[in-house]
Amino acid sequence: MIEITPEIITAFRGSQRAFSDITKWPDEAITEALCDAFPECGGRGWGAFELDNCQNFKRRGVFYFAAHWLSVTYTDGGAANPENVTSTARLNTAAKSVGDESVSYRVTAIEDTRTDWLTLTNYGVQYLRLRRRAAIGARAL
After folding, report:
1. pTM over 0.90
2. pLDDT-derived band of residue 131, with 50, 70 and 90 as boundaries?
């Protein structure tokens, strides 16, 4: 288990600059996102977390996942107001309108249901890219 320290929060804010506003994105919200992100980057394929190395594979994965989590959990107002949390699941959808009729439906061909939540933001897509690489790690028979 990694303790979420002020140094990790500062490094996250420096790496993911959209979350640098401490009024809009309080430390408590960043901590919660990082608490969710660290377990998502577990396993040998991710390697060890190195705070001061911006090229560190696990650091990048943790920060992308946390940024994604914050982006989809809170509305555009940020996390300063706890009421900004969205309570609905936002999955990949498409819509078509003809005249005064419109239809919305879930697009399942993009990603399977286990990962389509991650495709909602660029942060999530970047995390998926790294997660796929982490799973490819060297295998010995």
Report:
1. no
2. very high
